[in-house]
Amino acid sequence: MSNKSLFLLRHAKAASSTDLLADQDRPLTDRGVKDAKKLGDRMHKKSYSFDLILSSPAIRAITTAQLVANRLGHKQKFLAVEKSIYLCDMETLIDVVANIPKKIDTVLLVGHNPGLSDLACFLAGEPISMPTCALLELVFEMKTWDQISPNSLSKMHLVN
């Protein structure tokens, strides 16, 4: 049996909603940028690497993904925007993960609450808090992503 690693990353701190700015266009705050860079540095020190980074199309999620990818030295070709991740529910996230190609072993999924927290809790089988810029590593014993379930979870680690 082979291992697949799924990292769930909630976007960093974003600007508050305003009447002038659509939710999807909200940028990161200065603190959010700093937190994402710090997380990227910690991930770099631990030699994290991803075959694929999937991000919500929201500016705050894409920026978080790019800042982390830059700190890890990842090329932009490994970063894909997945429209269905934007403010979706847990079931949609499971569908997104289940459709990841078999050859991909390590994925970073950058998204939003409550869907991300709901997915983390479901897969871990316990309450998991996902504040902004929280990173959860989940390792599964499975050959293909469509086998993802709490039963195939072999290791879990909250990075921050």
UniProtKB/TrEMBL annotation:
Taxonomic source organism: Polynucleobacter meluiroseus
InterPro entries cross-referenced by the UniProt entry: His_Pase_superF_clade-1, His_PPase_superfam
Protein name: Phosphohistidine phosphatase
Pfam families referenced in this protein's UniProt entry, alphabetically: His_Phos_1
Superkingdom in the source lineage: Bacteria
Annotated residues for binding of substrate: 60
